[in-house]
Amino acid sequence: MITRLESKVIQFGIIIFWFLFWLFNVIDKFIGDSTFFWVGKDRLAQFIKYFSSIGIENPSVAFAFLVFVSIAEIIALVLVAGALWQLTRGNEQKTHQFFFWGIFFGLVIFSFFAIGDQIFGDRHELLEHTTYWVALIVSWGAYKYFPKSDNGIQQ
Question: Which domain holds residue 60?
Answer without folding.
Answer: 2-148
